[in-house]
Amino acid sequence: MWAAALRPPTSVDRVSSTAPAEPRPLAVLTRALLLGQHVLFAVLLLVAWGRAAGETPWFEVVAAALGVLYAALALVEHRSARSEAGGRPSAGTALPRLLLPLALLALLLLAWFASVGLTPDFAWLAFPLFFAVLRLLPSAWAVPLIGLMVLAVFWAHARVTGWAEVGLATVVGPTVGALVSIGMAHAYQMLLHENAVRQELVDELAAAKADLEATHESLAESRRQAGALDERARLSRDIHDTLAQGFSSIILLARAASQPGADAARLRTALGAIDQQASQSLTEARAVIADLTPETLSGSDLPAALERLVTSVSRLSGIRATFEMDGPARPLPRTHEVALLRLAQGALANVTAHSGATRAVVSLSVGDDGVRLDVVDDGVGFDPHDMREREDGTGYGLRSMRERMALLGGQLTVESARGAGTAIAAHLPGVTP
C-alpha cells in the first residue's frame, strides 16, 4: 500500500518501460524541459546566494546543501531513466530505485524550507522545485505540498516585512508560478498519455501485420502443399496411363508367346511386339519425367495420334480396333489433346487386359459444344458401380480418367453391363485452341 501510494505519476502516465522508446520529438521536448529546469534552479540558486551573502552564517551551508541535493536528485533521475529505457528493472531493485529519488526530494524540500526560514531570497527556488514535486509525486500529494510551499514563501516575506507590508506582487507571483507549474505538468502528462495510446495503436498494428504475414506464409505453404499433391496426382495418372499399361501389354504379349506349341515365327513376332512396346513405354517414361508432350503426340495432332494408337493396339493385341473421326478435325489446346490421348490409352489398355473383346472403336468429334471422345468395345463388360481400387493395384484407371476430365471442366460417362460390353464417353465443353 505504502509503495503504491508513493509511486510517482510518471510510472503511470509515461509509456511503460516495456514499451518502445518515446518518439524523437517527445524525447527532445522532455530533455529540453528538464535541462531548462536544471538551468533555472542553478541560476536562481546563484542569485539567491549572491543576495543573501553576509546576512546569516548558515546561508552558505544551506545553499551548498540545496545545490548538492538537487544535483544528486537530477543524477539519480537520469540514471533511472536510462535504466528504464534499457529494460524493466528486476523486482529486487524496483523499490530502492523508487524510494531513493523520493528520499532526495524530501531532503531537498527540507533544505529549501530551512533556506526560506533564513532569508526570503531563496523563495524563488520554489518554481523549479514545483516541477520536481509534480514529476515525482502523485497529484494528490503534489498539489497540497505545492500549496504549502507557496504559504512558506508568503511567510518568508511576511517574517521580514510584516504581514501588513506583503504586497500584491508577493502573493500573485508565487501563486501564478504554482498554477503555471501544475498546468504545464498536467499538459505534459496528457501529452505522454496520448503518446502511450498512440504507441499502443502502433503495437497493435504491428501485431496485426505480423499476424497477416503469418497467415500469408501459412496460405503460401498450403498452396505449395496443394501443388505438390496435384503434381503427385498428375504423375500417378500419367504413370498409370503410360508405364503401367505398357507393362500390362508386355506381360500379355509374353504370356501369349510362352504358350505351348508356339513356333519360331510366332516367337519372333511376339518379341518384336514386346520390343516395340518396351521402347514406346521407355519413351513415354522419359516424357513423364520431363513433363513433356506424350511421344504419340509429338509432331502431330490428336486425330493422327489416336489413329496410331488404335493401329498399335490392334497389331499388338489382335483386337480389331478402329478409329473414326466425326466431322472435320479442329485444333485443340495441347492440354486437352494430352488429356484425351491419355484417356484413350487407358481405356484401350483396359479393353486389352480385362474385356476379352474382339472389337473396339475409338471415335472423336469436335463441335461448337466442345469435343467428345468415345471408346466402345464388345467385351464381357462389368458393373460400373463397382469401381473400387483393388489390392493388386488395379481399378485405378477409371478414377484417373474422371480426374483428368474434372481438371479441365469436363465429364466422363461410363456405360457397361456384364456380357454387354463397355462404352466410355469423355466430353470437354467449348474448348478453343
Describe this structure in words.
The chain is of the alpha+beta class. It folds into 2 domains: 2-213, no CATH class; 297-433, Histidine kinase-like ATPase, C-terminal domain (Heat Shock Protein 90). The protein has helices at 2-6, 10-13, 24-52, 59-86, 91-118, 126-136, 139-161, 168-257, 264-290, 302-317, 334-355, 397-407, and strands spanning 320-326, 359-367, 370-377, 411-416, 422-429. It has a 5-stranded mixed beta sheet, covered by helices on one side. The longest helix has 90 residues, at 168-257. Residues 238-432 form the Histidine kinase domain. Its EC number is 2.7.13.3. InterPro entries: HATPase_C_sf, HATPase_dom, His_kinase_dom, Sensor_HK_TwoCompSys, Sig_transdc_His_kin-like_C, Sig_transdc_His_kin_sub3_dim/P, Sig_transdc_His_kinase_ChrS. It catalyses: ATP + protein L-histidine = ADP + protein N-phospho-L-histidine.
List the helices and strands and how they pair.
Elements: H1 2-6, H2 10-13, H3 24-52, H4 59-86, H5 91-118, H6 126-136, H7 139-161, H8 168-257, H9 264-290, H10 302-317, E1 320-326, H11 334-355, E2 359-367, E3 370-377, H12 397-407, E4 411-416, E5 422-429
Helix pairs in contact: 3-4, 3-6, 4-5, 5-6, 5-7, 6-7, 6-8, 7-8, 8-9, 8-11, 8-12, 10-11, 11-12
Catalytic activity: ATP + protein L-histidine = ADP + protein N-phospho-L-histidine
Organism: Intrasporangium calvum (strain ATCC 23552 / DSM 43043 / JCM 3097 / NBRC 12989 / NCIMB 10167 / NRRL B-3866 / 7 KIP)
Cofactor: [4Fe-4S] cluster
